[in-house]
Amino acid sequence: MNLNWFLLLFVCFIGQSSEEQRQVDEVKIGAIFSFGTTNGKVARIAMEAAVQDVNSDTTLLDGRKLALTLHDSNYSGFLGIIGALQFMETDTVAVIGPQSSVMAHALSHLANELHVPLLSFTALDPTLSPLQYPYFIQTAPSDLFLMTAVADVISYFQYREVIAIFSDDDQGRNSIAALGDKLVEKLCKISFKAILPPEPMSSRDLIVAELLKVKSIESRVIVLHTLSITGLRVFEVAQELGMMTSEYVWIATSWLSSVLDSTSVSTKVASSIQGALTLRSHTPDSQKKRAFVSRWNKLSNGSIGLNAYGLYAYDTVWMIAYAVEEFLDHGGKISYSNDSNLDSFAGETMNLAALSIFDGGKQLLSNILKTNMTGVSGPIAFKPDRSMFRPSFDILNVVGKGWLRQIGYWCNYSGLSVVPPESLYAKPANRSSSTQRLDQVIWPGQTKIRPRGWVFPDNGRPLRIGVPRRVGFRAFVSEKEGSGVVQGYCIDVFLAALKCLSYPVPHQFIIFGDGHKNPSYTQLVNMITAHEFDAAVGDITIVTNRTKVLDFSQPYIESGLVVVVHVKKMRSIAWAFLRPFTPLAWGVIAAFCLVVGTVVWILEHKFNDEFRGPPKKQVVTILWFSFSTIFGAPRENTVSTLGRIVLLIWLFVILIITSSYTASLTSFLTVQQLASSIQGIESLVTSNDAIGYQVGSFAENYLFEEVNIAKSRLVPLGSPEEYADALEQGRVAAVVDERPYVDQFLSTYCGFQKVGPEFTKSGWGFAFPRDSPLAIDMSTAILQLSENGELEKIHKKWLNRKVCGGQSSEADSEQLQLKSFWGLFLICGVTCCFALLVYFCFMLRQFKRHFPESTQCSTSTRTRISHSIRLRKFLSFVDEKAEISANRLKRKRMEMENLSTS
């Protein structure tokens, strides 16, 4: 009996020792997932394969083995919490999961308290901050990067408004909020949010109700961010409601690629998702990845396909293994201590006191964050903010029977591209719009034509377009008498722009105004914000206050405020013919006439009899010759070469001067006979005169608010006739109006003109509600009309550009200044100086030949001859007629020959 008891106690002792030894040799990790989901199934197989591979490596963990405990939360947050509590009671060093962000927010508090790292590759809520949850680590790219990629795709295709359909849980709400922030950076926005209950509470009826709301909204770009079951159901309902046509753009987040990578979908589901875009976490090709993919069918027994989350699950296990190994290598011990905060629960039925703090949790967390390895999903490392290093995504297009076609990539480094991100890391980062690129997309409806991305709301009525009923300047916009039909320049531009659109725009014009005076354009545009009109077409000026509440198309005509005044003929004066040139210019012209006449006389005097005679006659000849050149070639002939050269240059100068004089005098006697005391807005402001403005125009507010002109000085005018009467009768000193109206007024009424420059710069455009996509398309159409010349044709049809005779936009023209001709005078002066220099050199040479004794006598003789005598001889020689000089030289030569003979 005693022996039997001894044997029994020995066996129990041996068994207990073996159990304790086994526990010492194991490193426990847990995993919390809903293993009935696609990602849960894939993650389970991948994690078990990773544990097997880790344990087969005897060099890891100092001979210890990983022990993975799985807990199925089965879509229940409560069961997820229970599973986590169970792990904390069994000395677990780390937990993989949870699958959803809702559970991550709750379990992270438990991990913080007990220092057990929580690693998840599916709970990617961007609000899971490491500051709030230091023991929670996302081992896959956060949804912040996913939504950044979605925003870049939307911006790439030039969409401005999107509809977000998402599950009403933490990850859905917070991820869509992140999408909204990223879209704002791209000048886009979420125009409507369709919220669905989270799985498994999302029913078909609720989905139908939300999609009917979506269908009634004008935006047709839809971002679907849900879990797989709800997401596929949304696509099925959307197809039944006719929402998978070529009008729509569907962008599903990474849930759709995970489903299609791992499971086969029915024919009905496959047809409902045709043309959708989706994203997948990018995992670069490597030997490790190819080896793991080749093992997958054996690991899964062909039950499910591998997706990106399976790769992250496999790598997450290895991250824990490497971190634990480093922890053990540095002398760390896996030990636990009681949590003093739970002492009050000791002895309770719940046994919360059994929960203990992992003493080495902080060090293990630090080791995990220092991870720098290459796994099956690619390089793995964490930034200081705990985000994955260089997150990237595949951009996929669903074609065929649920087949995913790669159309590009997105990485946080360089944006969208058609080459893998890893090939771009060696190049400088470049996110300019010119480098963003994706391949051709096959959109819903099996079309390659990019959907417009919006339609008119499905309310069965055309657009209500307000049109002002003008009293004056009816060429711009007017109503045919009593017909209700509108016409004019602005209407033709609008209709021509509609023809350039690739879609019809049902519309009806609604006339605004009583017909007795021009309507208030401020009231007209305010009726758009009040939803009484869907748009406004007419001569509507784009001003700052209006752009704050409305969107405008591209301006189709330039505008700006100008000043118009009544002008009077200046009283003619007797000396008006002198006005073309300034006094200085007249003086220089007269001086050059005398100079040129004198130079020609010097050059011709010795050889030309017409330039010889008594002194009085020579003076008269010089004066006559000088001023007769102004009216043409002079009567006197020039025989010397130098004289002809000087005369030719001077006649050219005179030609330019007389032509300029004629043109300037004509201008002074016609156009420039207008004058006014108002020279522009500055002189108008400083005066106390009354100022006219057009009724309904923004000019009234501008003059009162911007220029600070008292309202008592402002006189409303309604038509061109009133303009003319008020200005002629002196009731107003000037009229301030926009340039298109003024140009039309001046083409009809004479005796008025613009003074001063435009003092505002604006334009006319079509007004639409805020963020209306039609404003963008109409802007593009207006640019097209401008480029093909159609806009100019419409302008010529309606608006007369001919200015009334005698009108000028300038109040006065400047007199011709000397600086306008200084080049000509310089050429003429240089020519005269050169001719005189050559002439006197020639005369000096001839003088030496005629009077050699004057230059070849002895030094003593030259000293006795005074300089004045030599100068008189030289001047006498120059004044002497050429024939006499030639005869004297001939006689001297004969005397020299006779003397030498004797």
TrEMBL record:
PANTHER family named among the record's database cross-references: IONOTROPIC GLUTAMATE RECEPTOR
Matches recorded under Gene3D superfamilies: 1.10.287.70, 3.40.50.2300, Periplasmic binding protein-like II (3.40.190.10)
Cell location: Membrane
The protein, known as: Glutamate receptor
Protein family per UniProt: Belongs to the glutamate-gated ion channel (TC 1.A.10.1) family.
Disulfide bonds: C750-C804
GO BP, one annotated term: signal transduction
Membrane association type: Multi-pass membrane protein
Keyword terms: Disulfide bond, Glycoprotein, Ion channel, Ion transport, Ligand-gated ion channel, Membrane, Receptor, Signal, Transmembrane, Transmembrane helix, Transport
Signal sequence range: 1-19
GO MF entry, a single one: ligand-gated monoatomic ion channel activity
Organism classification: Eukaryota, Viridiplantae, Streptophyta, Embryophyta, Tracheophyta
First-listed, main subcellular location of the protein, grouped into a coarse class: membrane
GO terms for cellular component: membrane
Function: Glutamate-gated receptor that probably acts as non-selective cation channel.
Pfam families associated with the record: ANF_receptor, Lig_chan, Lig_chan-Glu_bd
Solute-binding protein family 3/N-terminal domain boundaries: 462-802
